[in-house]
Amino acid sequence: MPSNPQNILQVQNLSKSFLGVKALDNIQFDLRKGEVHALMGENGAGKSTFMKILMGLLKPDSGEIIFEGEILKSNSVHENLRKGISMIHQEILVVPELTVAQNIFLGRETNYRSWLNDKAINQKAQEILDLIGVKINAQTKIKNLSIAEKQMVEISKAISNNAKVIIMDEPTSALTDNEVTMLLKIIKDLKAKGVAIIYISHKMDEIYEITDRITVLRDGQYIATKNTNELDKNALIALMVGREINDLFPVNNSKKGERIFSVENLSTKGKFENINFEIKAGEVLGIAGLMGAGRTEIARAIFGLDKYDSGEIILKGNKVEIKSPEDAIRNGIGYVSEDRKALGFIPALSIKDNISLSSLANFSKAWFVNSSHEHEAATQLSKDLKIKSTSINQKVMTLSGGNQQKVVIGKVLLTSPTLVILDEPTRGIDIGAKFEIYKLINQLTDKGIAVIMISSELPEILGMSDRIMVLSKGKQTALLSKHEATQEKIMQYAVN
Amino acid sequence: MLNRLRQYGIFVVFIIICLILSFISPQFLTVSNWTIIITQASINALLAFGVTFVIITGGIDLSLGSMVAVTGVTAAMLAHPDTFPVALPIFAGLLAGLLMGVFNGFIITKSKIAPFIVTLGTMTIGRGLALILSKGRPISNLSDSFNFIGGGEVLGIPFPIIVLIIIFTICSITLKKTLLGRYIYAVGGNEQAARASGINVNQVKMAVYSISGLLAGLAGVLLTSRITTGQPNAGAGFELDAIAAAVIGGTSTSGGTGTMTGTLVGVLLIGVINNGLDLLNVTSYYQQVVMGIIIIGAVVLDSWNQKKD
């Protein structure tokens, strides 16, 4: 196939296998100058492998990458970077103790004389920051920046590299709405300057706002490339999952029982104050609010990860004192953290070991773990939750994000909780797995478990909650019923 | 096949080295030589088992050698003939080790200071205590029954080897089959997640440093009995051999992985190499160089294996 001169990047018949399993099978892809091209697919579709090959981190088994009319043969990240292919990572890779300028020029300091010359790089870095319109001082240490600002630093780094292709992997997953707006504006500017962008995201709104074309991968196969304005949301989802999902949120008909949990005047100085709510058995209480509104902080306090200053936690009519996660679990409270990697699981342990971790004492007699009981329980849960794996002895670090999340939920379920707090339960998870998590939430409430769901995705909050608590700057600004809540109302209370 | 071999990397290296040595030196593959190897390795083994627990939690214990000295001197002071029954010096030695381990664990969990620093401190404190207790002099003239622990035999098997087998079995079962074992891996694999899973992380850390201290106490008693003297300068540098054995055996210093069998192979490998170089009349200066190369080689091999995964 002759390469189109319009294309800065053209990928032909790219394949890659790991231990005999095809991760990528005959991938076709082309990228035009000045275009934003979405790469879509569920977790495990092969997006990461594909990006790693483009970066030069992995070598393809077969196929060609043509970059600016020449076959790209290198398999070193450094060389690809030099040629103009940069990536903004999902997990940001900046060095916290260095300044913004030092990070932007990390590894390339010698371009500005053989001795380190902070003055020159400060000036150069500031120019780039100003160019993209971010208000960051080049001499600030990275550790003092927000996640969004760190991301801007990464983008500046790519620009300073004269990047012609920038790969963005879930760049908005940790940003607030304002920051997202700012990022999207920067992307539009880059595009106008002729930079081509490969954009990976699970957030539909963004995809439709900024991308020109969409390429869909599924199970390592190339499915289709379409113009964004010719592909509607449902058709896109159908391409990604290989089937139609008409209703994103499964219907919940759980019976509501008695009040089983309440919080009275819960306060922690500087984080949240005077929080009051109650929750009945079988109910889903959604907590909405902007980033930094105190949602996760409240969850952490209830679960005993952080101390709270004052207020009461009442469980089944009794005041309980929760000083550690141990206390919380003993009292029937489970927590699925927003930060799966840091708080969710032990990567080097198996699915079984992770699932049983919080309830291991129940599977033990006098110190010794009853491994056959443990094995049985973990196998059952793994089946119920549809965890995709070769066996329950597979290490959790080798699973996809959605399956890791299911392992964490499985661990919580095995403690037989009466209240489960789900903090951003579908963050970074593809649509198919999201739907399964929603169904799971309904199964929990069917069993009479009360669920608190914290989420930044308003459709999810509206679709799943019976009642919605809105927070703004640590204060409770509204408690809405399912019927009175709308996206607009929630936003109003959230920015209050 | 090759993958299989890699999985047991250090084990294969161990067998190959044994084969080579048995070709070069006819004495190598004899019962009496192996009895010597294992008896000599037994003290390092006890320390290495203890420190394996610690390293899997992501910690380190540099005070092992000093604990050997303190506990050895403590036992020796109570082990003169016709004073106390032999159980007393043994018990006192173990207790001294346990207390020092508890002290390590207490400071580490309460102060949140890095274990490296805390145990570096107790290493120095311990050495000082051993010199204070013994007034800087070796304590000899120990009872026969005490000297049996390190020098005696049961059914022709040296007593230290029996101790080694028993302790290995207990440690191995603890790590594989008990709640504590699982929690040790969890804390080392991701401390935050372990805490959020309801594990009392501080308790787990207290446990591993206490076990490490207790086993150092046992090693101290064994050593004192074997050399029939309480030496305040004994055990210097032992912690490094123990850590090396654990690391050679596949315990990652970043925590979360490791096995007792691996550590045992690490201990035996160090023992076999020292013994082999002795048989080949290599001077001890060169032995140290070889040992260093092997430690680095083992870790390189291990990280290479992990990349292949």
Structure, explained:
The complex is a heterodimer of chains A (496) and B (309). Chain A has helices at residues 47-55, 77-83, 100-104, 118-132, 147-160, 177-192, 204-210, 233-241, 295-302, 325-330, 340-344, 351-355, 371-384, 401-413, 431-446, 458-464, 487-495, and strands at 7-18, 21-32, 36-40, 62-67, 70-71, 85-88, 165-169, 196-200, 213-218, 221-227, 259-268, 272-280, 284-289, 310-315, 318-320, 333-336, 364-365, 368-369, 419-423, 450-454, 467-472, 475-481. With 496 residues, chain A is an alpha/beta fold. Chain A has two domains: 7-241, Rossmann fold (3-Layer(aba) Sandwich); 259-495, P-loop containing nucleotide triphosphate hydrolases (Rossmann fold, 3-Layer(aba) Sandwich), CATH 3.40.50.300. The radius of gyration of chain A is 24 Å and the shape is globular. Chain B is an all-alpha fold and 309 residues long. Chain B has one domain: ABC transporter involved in vitamin B12 uptake, BtuC (Orthogonal Bundle), CATH 1.10.3470. Chain B has a two-stranded antiparallel sheet. In chain B, helix 3 (31-56) crosses helix 12. The longest helix of chain B is centred in the first third of the chain and has 26 residues, at 31-56. The mean pLDDT of chain B is 91. The chains are: A alpha/beta (496), B mainly alpha (309). The interface between A and B is medium-sized, with 30 and 21 residues.
List the helices and strands and how they pair.
The complex is a heterodimer of chains A (496) and B (309).
Chain A lengths: L6 E12 L2 E12 L3 E5 L6 H9 L6 E6 L2 E2 L5 H7 L1 E4 L11 H5 L13 H15 L14 H14 L4 E5 L7 H16 L3 E5 L3 H7 L2 E6 L2 E7 L5 H9 L17 E10 L3 E9 L3 E6 L5 H8 L7 E6 L2 E3 L4 H6 L2 E4 L3 H5 L6 H5 L8 E2 L2 E2 L1 H14 L16 H13 L5 E5 L7 H16 L3 E5 L3 H7 L2 E6 L2 E7 L5 H9 L1
Parallel strand pairs in A: 3-8, 3-9, 6-7, 7-8, 13-20, 13-21, 16-19, 19-20
Antiparallel strand pairs in A: 1-2, 1-4, 4-5, 9-10, 11-12, 11-14, 14-15, 17-18, 21-22
Helix pairs in contact in A: 4-5
Chain B lengths: L1 H6 L1 H16 L6 H26 L7 H14 L9 H25 L3 H20 L9 H8 L1 E2 L2 E2 H19 L1 H11 L1 H6 L4 H26 L11 H11 L11 H20 L4 H25 L1
Antiparallel strand pairs in B: 1-2
Protein name (chain A): Monosaccharide-transporting ATPase
Organism (chain A): Emticicia aquatilis
Pfam families (chain A): ABC_tran (PF00005)
